[in-house]
Amino acid sequence: xxxxxxxxxxxxxxxxxxxxxxxxxxxxxxxxxxxxxxxxxxxxxxxxxxxxxxxxxxxxxxxxxxxxxxxxxxxxxxxxxxxxxxxxxxxxxxxxxxxxxxxxxxxxxxxxxxxxxxxxxxxxxxxxxxxxxxxxxxxxxxxxxxxxxxxxxxxxxxxxxxxxxxxxxxxxxxxxxxxxxxxxxxxxxxxxxxxxxxxxxxxxxxxxxxxxxxxxxxxxxxxxxxxxxxxxxxxxxxxxxxxxxxxxxxxxxxxxxxxxxxxxxxxxxxxxxxxxxxxxxxxxxxxxxxxxxxxxxxxxxxxxxxxxxxxxxxxxxxxxxxx
Length: 323
Hints:
- It is a single chain.
- The chain has eight helices and nine strands.
- With 323 residues, it is α+β, with helices and mostly antiparallel strands.
- Helix 6 links the parallel strand 4 (219-225) and strand 5 (248-251).
- Helix 1 (2-19) runs antiparallel to helix 3 (54-104) and helix 5 packs across helix 8 (305-322).
- The strands form two sheets. A seven-stranded mixed β-sheet has the order 2-1-5-4-3-8-9. Strands 6-7 form a two-stranded antiparallel sheet.
């Protein structure tokens, strides 16, 4: 703005010089006598100097017009330059701020170097190798431990078995001592059993023959009645011969049956009684007894002939290894 005012002042001074050349200024001449004073003369008097002619007046107006145009152009240029300078200054500021911001931010690293990549691969491979080695060692330890453990009777055997005094299907008194030196399979049931007892005795008879055939072991099958009121010696004799020729049937008094059932942990109880026809609910278990008449293992109803055969053979082999 100061530049514009300076230029305008210079142009006005030039115009003034044009109208008033250097030298003594001319004094205004008095108006001729009888001349009529124009009404506009008071207004033009301050603007137009006295003694100036028409040509001077035109020259003065032209200088004023030129000065005004130059001032307007100068003002327009300055106004146009101001936004440009402001924009340029803003750009410079933003650029400077960006540069300062970029300078303040840490420079991002380039791609992963080959050295770091190789270190990462080596670390991963080492972890995988270590894990695989530990896994194999763990499996090997478990395998060795399982091979080192020998199967056999547990330290605390079940308290199953004991002395008894019964009568066999031939009418002779029999005790547990009569079975010493032989492997024995004992099953508790009753002759009036409709289905379970016959099925289990058939399975026992088949397993005895199969054990003899496969391993050459002689097993003595024994049937002990839990229904002493109805299972007489004659009844038991006729019953056992239907399953196997070597099957020994045992019966006795109610007290003797109760005693032997308690020794072998056998449960039995009469069910609904209608006259003389009743059933006996009892445990469905076969007991494998060793040559010393000590308990070795029991087999439940879920074992079929093959499972019973293999189970007995394995138990006898383990027993002989320990001896």
